C-alpha cells in the first residue's frame, strides 16, 4: 500500500490502491507477468502516406474490432496475447470475420526453429507473427484452449482447423504518436510493447508517470480526452478485474511507458469455417 501511495502521488489523474496483485512482491509481478523479450529483427515500416491529416477527437474500437478481454494467468505470455489480439482485430477489419484465436498455440509451438522464445517466460510479437506465418495458420481458441502453461506434448496445432493466416506484419508510426493516432483513428487498433512495471496497483484513470523499461505487450484500442489530458485506451491481458474493465489509460504525447517503441499491425486472411 505504501508503494501504491507513492504511485498515486506521481499520477494525480489516476487512482492507485489495493488490487489483485497487492500481495505479490514486485519481483513476482515482474518475473511472472512481464516477460517481453526483445528481438534483433526489424519489421518493415507501413506506408502511412494515405492516412488522413485529421481524425475524430476520440475513437474506441472496443467491441467493434476487438474480442473480449483475455487473461494470461500466471504465465508470461503477454506477447502471445498482444499478437493474437492484433490478428483478431485485423481479421475483423480486413475481412469482417470475428473469431477468437488461440494464444496457447504461440506458447507451445515453434516452426522449423523460428520464433525463438520461452513459452511462459517470455517472447515478442515479431516472433509470434513469424511463427503463425510459418505454420500456415492459427487455430481458434475453441480448438486450442488456453492453459496458462506450456502443456504436455508441446504443439497441438491442427492445420486443417486453421482459422486465420498471417501474410505480413509492419511497424505503424514507430516513434511517432501522432502517426499512431492517425492510424488508430482511421484504420484500427495497434499491438504495442510497453513499460508496465508500475501497473500492479493501478485501478482507474489516466497514467501520467511511468518508467522506461519495456517489459510487456498489449494493444491500443482507442484514444480520447478527459479534461485537458489526451490518453490512449490500452487493452491488457490480466482479465476484466484489472483497471478499467481490463484496460488502462495512458497519457498521449511524451512516449509514456515507451508506448511508441513497437506499434505493429498485420495483414491477414481468413481460413476454413469462420463466424461472420
Q: What structural class do helix, strand and pairing data support?
A: alpha+beta
Domain count: 1
Biggest sheet overview: 7 strands, mixed
Question: Given this structure, which CATH class is correct?
Answer: Alpha Beta
If you consult CATH, what is the topology? Cathepsin B, Chain A
Please give the count of helices. 6
| Share of helical residues | 10-25%
Write up what this structure looks like.
This protein has 276 residues and is α+β, with helices and mostly antiparallel strands. The protein has one domain: Cathepsin B, Chain A (Alpha-Beta Complex), CATH 3.90.70.10. Helices cover 22% and strands 21% of the residues. It contains six helices and ten strands. It has helices spanning 2-10, 26-33, 78-95, 103-108, 125-135, 177-186, and strands spanning 14-16, 59-60, 138-139, 162-171, 190-194, 202-207, 216-226, 229-235, 247-251, 264-270. The strands form two sheets. Strands 1, 2, 5, 6, 7, 8 and 9 form a seven-stranded mixed sheet that branches. A three-stranded antiparallel sheet has the order 3-4-10. The longest helix has 18 residues, at 78-95.
Amino acid at each position: 500500500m505504501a508503494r501504491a501511495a507513492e504511485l498515486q502521488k506521481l499520477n494525480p489523474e489516476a487512482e492507485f490502491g489495493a488490487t489483485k496483485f497487492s500481495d505479490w512482491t514486485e519481483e513476482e509481478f515482474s518475473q511472472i507477468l512481464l516477460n517481453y523479450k526483445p528481438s534483433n529483427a526489424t519489421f518493415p515500416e507501413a506506408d502511412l502516406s494515405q492516412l488522413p491529416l485529421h481524425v475524430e477527437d476520440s475513437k474506441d474500437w472496443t467491441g467493434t474490432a476487438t474480442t473480449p478481454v483475455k487473461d494470461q494467468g500466471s504465465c508470461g505470455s503477454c506477447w502471445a496475447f498482444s499478437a493474437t489480439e492484433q490478428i483478431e482485430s485485423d481479421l475483423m477489419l480486413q475481412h469482417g470475420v470475428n473469431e477468437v484465436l488461440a494464444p496457447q498455440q504461440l506458447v507451445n509451438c515453434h516452426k522449423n526453429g523460428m520464433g525463438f522464445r520461452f513459452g511462459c517466460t517470455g517472447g515478442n510479437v515479431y516472433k509470434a507473427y513469424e511463427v503463425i506465418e510459418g505454420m500456415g495458420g492459427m487455430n481458434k481458441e475453441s480448438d486450442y484452449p488456453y492453459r496458462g502453461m506450456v502443456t504436455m506434448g508441446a504443439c497441438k496445432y491442427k492445420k486443417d482447423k486453421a482459422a486465420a493466416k498471417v501474410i505480413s506484419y509492419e511497424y505503424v508510426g514507430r516513434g511517432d504518436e501522432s502517426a499512431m493516432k492517425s492510424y488508430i483513428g482511421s484504420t484500427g487498433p495497434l499491438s504495442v510493447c510497453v513499460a508496465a512495471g508500475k501497473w500492479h496497483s493501478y485501478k482507474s484513470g489516466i497514467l501520467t508517470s511511468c518508467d522506461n523499461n519495456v517489459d510487456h505487450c498489449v494493444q491500443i484500442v482507442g484514444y480520447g480526452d478527459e479534461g485537458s489530458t489526451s490518453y490512449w485506451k490500452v487493452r491488457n491481458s490480466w482479465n476484466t478485474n484489472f483497471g478499467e474493465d481490463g484496460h488502462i489509460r495512458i497519457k498521449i504525447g511524451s512516449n509514456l511507458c515507451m508506448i511508441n517503441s513497437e506499434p505493429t499491425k498485420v495483414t491477414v486472411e481468413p481460413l476454413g469455417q469462420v463466424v461472420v
